Amino acid sequence: MKKEKKLKIFIDGGSRGNPGHGACAAVFFNSSGAILREDGRYLGRCTNNFAEYNGLRLALAAAGRLGAEELEIYSDSELLVRQFSGQYRIKDETLAGIMGEIRKAAAAFKKISLAHVRREKNKEADRLVNRILDNARRAAPEVDKTLAEENAAAKQPRLF
């Protein structure tokens, strides 16, 4: 597969309940608009904002592994976009720590932009988050219990 230096990425995160079962996803497009890759993670019990932040973390980690240099990232979380840009401050300690990791990861790219899009423009990432949550719901209850216990012990799991 040819390495794409510029990627367009749509990210999403969500939880069913707040907090509740959460997941994050990133969908990567090449310059022609074709989907290159989809990536997502089940997060266990978390807040919606935690899931949104982890969608961005996931996108940056995967884009780095793909060798990308320039990223155009789109999220339907206006809060995430404004906190990333510094327009809004981050009050939650856990999210502030994750944002520090996000900014460090973002510094590895030549160019990065994060823009807000309406939810209807983020259908692919939203579809992937919902698929992950649907599949997790059908997963073995002991796996879900283990993830919930891990989250409770460490606030949220380290995923990337």
Structural summary, described in words:
This protein is α/β, with parallel strands linked by helices and 160 residues long. The chain is built from 5 helices and 5 strands, in the order βββαβααβαα. Strand 1 and strand 2 form a beta hairpin. The two termini are 23 Å apart.
**Gyration radius from CA atoms, angstroms:** 15 Å
N-to-C CA distance: 23 Å
From the structure provided, what is the oligomeric state, counting identical versus distinct chains? single chain
The biggest sheet amounts to: 5 strands, mixed
Beta-strand content estimate = 25-35%
Spatially, the strands of the biggest sheet line up as 3-2-1-4-5
Class inferred from helices and paired strands: alpha/beta
Global shape: globular
Number of strands: 5
Order of helices and strands: EEEHEHHEHH
Low-pLDDT segments, ≥5 res? none
Number of helices: 5
**Helical residue percent band:** 40-55%
Mean pLDDT figure: 89
What keywords describe this structure?
160 residues; alpha/beta; 5 helices; globular
